[in-house]
Amino acid sequence: MATPKTGRRRMATMLALAAALAVTAAPVVEARPGGGGGSFGSRGSRTYSPPAGTATSPGATAPIQRSQTAPSPGMSNPGMQANGGRRFGGGFFAGLLGAGLLGALVGGGFFGGLGGIASFLGLLLQIGLLVGLAMLVVSFFRRRQAGGPAMAANTPYSRSNLDGAGQGAGPMGGMGLGGGSAAPQGQPVAIQPADYEAFERTLNEVQTAYGREDLGTLRRVATPEMVGYFDEELRANAQRGVVNRISDVKLLQGDLSEAWREGPVEYATVAMRFSLKDETFDRSTQRVVENGPTEAKEFWTFARERGGAWLLSAIQQGR
């Protein structure tokens, strides 16, 4: 016959398991290219410098986490720092929660013991306080990584004004990350209405080609580096037995963050907010297993040899 003490321990264990599920619950799935929160690709000498905020995406931008461009001397990789911050927030608190679960299961102590419901609620309160403190710390370091003065005059564009006069980027400043690195180099480049139309067209082509797992089209509209990352994601989907289908992509708002030239290569980074239908299906049953958001906000960087076609060279998540 269960004693009152045993009943309390069982109740504490059930509450701990419920808390674990709440803490570790997966966020809304974003399966589109780079939608899982990743930021990857190359922006020339500005790869590890944040693009200027715009009216479309005025907040901090996720730093590049994967790139074939090596950081400049004296510049640490902000992407690695961001990954490290996420590992701190996940692994550290998973350890605290695990200790609490162990205490609930064996009747041991954590921050003074779990002798009853009151003690366990005290544990949850302490975990909540620690989570809040860690979020403040991570937010502080992210602001330090992504902060700084704007680097370009923002040029808004959308379906309503794509046919307007072309606007050039303003003077290109730059702020290196990692302590004392030189400002990115490059001469300003004027972006014309035809360029904006190419960016919007590439947005649609990349998303739909990814949904069709069409590497041939992706090779035509993106750099080899980006195609390599897309191929990795598609292979991972195949291993999971799922396929990600994207349709109904529509640009809602966009503006130019910066545009510059480095030698024979021209770059343009634009903020884009777009709607889409993002669904992941089981390959064998064709049953929908995941639904992504219906709207996204990202910075896309395009590159081209002078006079050539624009190719997608980087994707960063806007905030």
Key phrases:
single chain, 319 residues, 6 helices, globular
Secondary-structure topology with pairs:
Layout: H1 4-24, E1 40-41, H2 78-106, H3 117-146, E2 155-157, E3 167-168, E4 187-188, E5 190-191, H4 193-212, H5 215-221, H6 224-240, E6 242-262, E7 265-282, E8 288-291, E9 295-305, E10 311-317
Antiparallel strand pairs: 1-10, 2-6, 3-5, 4-6, 6-7, 7-8, 7-9, 9-10
Contiguous runs where pLDDT drops below 50 for at least 5 residues: 17-29, 78-114, 143-155, 157-183
Shape: globular
Q: Could you give the distance between the termini?
A: 55 Å
Rg, nearest Å: 23 Å
Number of DSSP strands?
A: 10
| Structural category | alpha+beta
| Largest sheet geometry | 8 strands, antiparallel
**How many DSSP helices?**
6
Determine the mean pLDDT.
72
Q: What percentage of amino acids are in beta strands?
A: 15-25%
SSE order, as H and E? HEHHEEEEHHHEEEEE
Helix content: 25-40%
Characterize the structure shown:
With 319 residues, this protein is of the alpha+beta class. It is 39% helix and 23% strand. It has six helices and ten strands; from the N terminus they run H-E-H-H-E-E-E-E-H-H-H-E-E-E-E-E. It has helices at residues 4-24, 78-106, 117-146, 193-212, 215-221, 224-240; strands at 40-41, 155-157, 167-168, 187-188, 190-191, 242-262, 265-282, 288-291, 295-305, 311-317. Strands 1, 2, 4, 6, 7, 8, 9 and 10 form an eight-stranded antiparallel beta sheet that branches. A two-stranded antiparallel ribbon has the order 3-5. A hairpin with a 5-residue loop joins strand 9 and strand 10 (311-317). Helix 2 runs antiparallel to helix 3.
